[in-house]
Amino acid sequence: MKNNMIYGLHPVMEAINSGKQIDKIFIQKNLKGSLSQELLSLLKNKNITYKTVPVEKINRLTRDNHQGVVAFVSPITFYTLEDILEKPAGKARSFILLDGITDPRNFGAIVRTAVAVDADGIIIPENNSAPVNEDVVKTSAGGIFKIPIIKVKHLKDAIFLLQAHDIKIVAATEKSDTLVYNIDLKPDFALIMGSEGKGINKSLLQMSQARAKLPMSPKMDSLNVSVACGIILYEAIRQRL
Question: 171, 183 in Cβ contact below 8 A?
Fold first, then answer.
């Protein structure tokens, strides 16, 4: 085991059976053998999502005898959205949904701000999201341990559930005609932040009830995603004061 990385069939299965929270798991494509089939059955029984990748990807992670499997153990326990929504908040709630945020430092910076504004949770998809690793812990200044991180199979399902609880879905996008200052953020809301390259997935954008943009000089196309997220969250704080 290196830091939070485990490799090898037996060590990975032992980690899963011992109840460790698995953040990511990569399995070599076309992996053969009875042990690999045992691992796949275990993952299915435990409802753990994995990604099949070429052996070159795993070799880049470790040159040790990985046997075609590498897993990353999360330093935190993930929450379910149902658990969070069932708890009485006692205040206007705010959530952040991260669509395609794969850089641990951006993720960590968003977590730090979310804790600072007392947000109720950060929702990430099982795939195409940053790993919860030491970079996230450091960049978040330990904030990763102070806010619920909610991992879901699909962000669409999370949005449906949030809407069922009368939580307004706000998408941060430069494609909007409405400045964030003209959007009511006093009630419960969930903010979708997309990657700087691709932005928010079109299907998620269509599910939003409001689309917010930030004023921007023509000299610059966009802001860093963590900076933009912080500005919007603090606008919500300003409105709620």
Answer: no
Domains and their CATH numbers in the chain: 5-73 (3.30.1330.30), 81-240 (3.40.1280.10)
Sort 223 into a burial class: Cβ within 10 Å, 0-12 / 13-18 / 19+. Answer: middle
Distances in whole angstroms, Cα of residue 192 to Cα of each of 76, 134, 171: 22, 24, 5
pLDDT of residue 1: 43
Q: At what angle do helices 34-45 and 9-17 cross, to 10 degrees?
A: 20
The pLDDT-based confidence of 3 (bands split at 50, 70, 90) is: low
pLDDT value, residue 175: 87
Please report the sign of the dihedral spanned by the C-alpha atoms of residue 215, residue 174, residue 110, residue 183.
positive
Residues in the chain, total: 241
Cα distances from 43 to residues 22, 47, 65, in angstroms, run 10, 6, 21
Tokens of 207: 């599910």
Question: Which pLDDT value is given to residue 182?
Answer: 97
pTM comes to 0.86
Question: Is pLDDT at 234 greater than 90 in this prediction?
Answer: yes
| Cα 120 versus chain centre, distance | 14
Pairing of strands 69-73, 22-28: antiparallel
* Cross-strand pairs, 193: 98
Angle of CA points 63, 68, 46, to nearest 5°: 130
